[in-house]
Amino acid sequence: MPRVTEKFSYWMLVLPALAIMVIFYIVPVLGIWKIAFTEPVTGFGNFEKMAASSAVQTSFIITFRVAAVTTVGCLLLGYIVAYAISNYASRLTPLMVALVILPFWVSVLIRSFSWIVLLGRSGIVNDALRDAGLIEAPLKLMHNEFGVVIAMIHVMLPFAVLPMLTNMRGISGAYVQAARSLGASEWYAFRNVYFPQTMPGVMSGALLVFVLSLGFYVTPALLGGGRVLMISEYITYQIQEFLNWGLGSALSVALLVATALVLLVAARFVNLRATLLDRK
Amino acid sequence: MARSTFQIFFQTGAWLIIAFLVLPILVVIPISLTDTSYIGLPKEALSLQHYANYFSDGDWLGATWTSIWVGLVVASCATVLGTAFAIGCWFLSDRAAMVARWVLITPILVPPVVQALGFYRFWVVLGLIDTHFGVILAHTLLALPYVSISVFASLTNLDRNIPRAARSLGASVLQTVRAVIVPAIKPGILSGFIFAFIVSFDEIVGVLFITVRRVQTLPKMIWEGIQDNIDPTIAAVATLLVLLTLLATLFGALRRS
């Protein structure tokens, strides 16, 4: 039976990576579920405590609000960049693409550090405004949601641009030309002919940015200064400050479920496979 | 041809947004040259003291070296495992292989803090807390999705008849993989390797949970430095990394053109 041994040898290629992923990753993450239901006592106690806590509710609201605002910001800004790159070919186009991808390679930590330097109380922006005589007292630009959102948009923007770029590159210019030659204004042709065709790219970008923002830790923790407690930071608080593994794990489970729900809902509008598995 | 308001809006808009993406990263450069001992712009003169500090500080250099070698080991492990995985899935191309591919990319979707908690509890059981091996294992898992995605992307462009020809001429599966497939998808493997290295080199949340004092990585030093918030050495380190990135990007762009 040659076909069986053939298949077997392909599985031998797949198995090492799959096995260590299941044993050392999937099992530990499922272990968090177990902790949530068993520590300190077996039952739904942690989830009851979680549902009753107004601090947890606030944190979830902040998390979803920051993620939503970041997503909208990234889509608006990203669309403009992706549109210009794919529709106005020039010698500078490759440079534009390179500059969009560049921040990807710079660590999130360093990019957050840059924003701290810029937005801090005696940061560069405040100093410049004061030297220009525009303000008396320093503006509060970070340790609030404003600072977190600005830095998050900065970190997430490439994730929005790239899927839109892939999508827009596949759109033929013939449709817009046809609309224009039939008398549509530039704006009308864009709004009614071009824009609808870009929706798959927009949706992919939205999904990536939203899901990554929901669980984001580094930038909110650094720019929020403990005042913008998103769920991820709330979890580390529970565990590092209070050693409250039960509640921390229950929150983790809630965050995982929230992420899964977002993906489930998104699956109706977005090609998940193209967005996550087969992306380039 | 005169440009319409529409075109002007998108073109100037795009450049402004790209400025928003790139310029904030560059602020670390003037900060790193400050002559003050706190984080701020240079007051009276430019100074290289913070670079001198970095290059003479055993902790910073040690952490840098750790990050580099851990990153290289992680990239090698993840590339070998991930490439074999992607090739196997490509050959199989059935439902089970699809499920396997989804399983392998879960680290992209699970929030970093949640997976770090998982690592911590399991690594305690395995006795891997605060060991280099523990960090390498965790980072390899986090890097695998990127290798698998990038290798699979170049496999989709590969003609299935090529390995079929090799097989019909008597090559074993392993020989076909080594002599036919791997050379054909080298660009995908290489970019997977680079991705994996960067994932490990920049990873912070996992390291914060699974290491204590013995294992120090560069991101951890930077993280702790930002929390203490006094030392401009971070700006010098950041500048070096940003310049390195710029050079690499430039080099890559030149090679492509």
UniProtKB/TrEMBL annotation, chain A:
Topology relative to the membrane: Multi-pass membrane protein
Database matches in PROSITE patterns: ABC_TM1 (PS50928)
Domain ABC transmembrane type-1 per the UniProt entry, residue ranges: 60-266
Chief place where the protein resides: membrane
GO cellular component terms attached to this protein's record: plasma membrane
Subcellular location: Cell membrane
Keywords: Cell membrane, Membrane, Transmembrane, Transmembrane helix, Transport
UniProt KW Membrane keyword: yes
Record-linked InterPro entries: MetI-like, MetI-like_sf
GO biological process per UniProt: transmembrane transport
Residue intervals passing through the bilayer: 12-36, 56-85, 97-118, 146-165, 201-223, 243-270
Keyword Thylakoid: no
Homology family: Belongs to the binding-protein-dependent transport system permease family. CysTW subfamily.
Stated name of the protein: Opine/polyamine ABC transporter, permease protein
Automatic annotation (TrEMBL), chain B:
Keyword Amino-acid biosynthesis recorded: no
Keywords: Cell inner membrane, Cell membrane, Membrane, Transmembrane, Transmembrane helix, Transport
A single cellular component GO annotation: plasma membrane
Gene3D superfamilies: MetI-like (1.10.3720.10)
GO biological process: transmembrane transport
Similarity-based family: Belongs to the binding-protein-dependent transport system permease family.
Annotated protein name in UniProt: Opine/polyamine ABC transporter, permease protein
